Design the sequence.
């Protein structure tokens, strides 16, 4: 294992529970304002625009909205405006832009066009002084403090937690909202868990699959990205259902498959597909996790634990998880 002092990634992962508590406390009034806007507007669907880890948070948001509110949730590509110059026709909707820095030119351009089209805009960002925040109708700051590692950790966890808080407020779902309030405590417990088997296998792997379904799919996507970023490991994320529609053909004896599976409505079908993968020879890992007060929040608990493992996997492979070769913290795409 690479000999180095505590990395920024490790420190920032450990800060996530307190960051989430701070974010929830800071945004309480704005969440009430947003819930009122949602009820008054009565949107027929919701739209997001984000990239990278922020777009994975949007995928989590999508599943919570579609399951809890019953509305379609569409993630639109920023390039349709920033590159292709499309004029948007957004009616009966709200736009959520999600960007850690709030400074990516393509997201800013998309948000400006959406405002021109008449859509109310909610910005989720870690920089309340950013251009994205300044031009939004409502800004919900992540309040995580500086994040120095290139790999996003605490900002992603805060973004996902904020998405759950938004859905709880808009749905007036007391069970979900109460569970969100206790989430920082659950995350602190999750941070103490360690996925030894995952670390051992991924530390030596050349390729692997990461699977999830429903809200957990977003965490599979985020985990695969982190393994690419920090370990240079070829990791592919798939739905635990979609993996049966083609990608399963690549499975061979000992092929590692990490499954983010929670005790929600998809548990039985995920278990059946896991059995088929094992019969095909896959080395399936389904690590334990800290359960929260609501199954929709369990995926956030799982990614909290995973981030600690991802940092150790990177160091075991001789990599510095804070400084990938070809990446930088703020990616300004157009």
Sequence:
């Amino acid at each position: 294992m690479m000999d180095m002092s505590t990395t920024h990634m490790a420190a920032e992962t450990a800060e996530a529970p307190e960051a989430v508590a701070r974010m929830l406390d800071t945004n309480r009034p704005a969440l009430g304002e947003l819930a009122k806007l949602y009820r008054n507007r009565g949107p027929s669907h919701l739209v997001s625009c984000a990239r990278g880890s922020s777009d994975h948070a949007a995928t989590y948001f999508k599943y919570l909205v579609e399951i809890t509110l019953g509305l379609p949730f569409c993630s639109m590509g920023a390039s349709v405006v920033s590159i292709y110059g499309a004029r948007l026709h957004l009616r009966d909707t709200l736009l959520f832009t999600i960007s850690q820095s709030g400074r990516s030119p393509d997201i800013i351009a998309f948000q400006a066009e959406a405002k021109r089209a008449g859509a109310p805009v909610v910005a989720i960002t870690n920089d309340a002084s950013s251009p994205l925040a300044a031009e939004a109708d409502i800004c919900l700051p992540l309040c995580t403090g500086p994040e120095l590692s290139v790999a996003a950790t605490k900002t992603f966890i805060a973004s996902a937690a904020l998405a759950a808080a938004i859905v709880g407020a808009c749905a007036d779902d007391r069970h979900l909202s109460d569970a969100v309030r206790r989430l920082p405590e659950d995350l602190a417990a999750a941070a103490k868990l360690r996925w030894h088997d995952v670390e051992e296998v991924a530390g030596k792997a050349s390729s692997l699959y990461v699977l999830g379904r429903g809200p957990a799919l977003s965490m599979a996507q985020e985990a695969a990205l982190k393994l690419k970023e920090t370990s240079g490991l070829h990791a592919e994320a798939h739905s635990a259902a979609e993996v049966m529609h083609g990608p399963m053909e690549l499975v061979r004896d000992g092929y590692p498959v990490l499954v983010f599976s929670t005790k929600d409505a998809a548990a039985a079908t995920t278990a059946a597909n896991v059995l088929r993968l094992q019969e095909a020879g896959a080395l399936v890992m389904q690590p334990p996790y800290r359960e929260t007060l609501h199954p929709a929040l369990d995926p956030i608990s799982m990614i909290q634990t995973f981030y600690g493992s991802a940092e150790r996997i990177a160091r075991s492979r001789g990599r510095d998880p804070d400084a990938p070769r070809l990446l930088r913290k703020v990616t300004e795409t157009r």
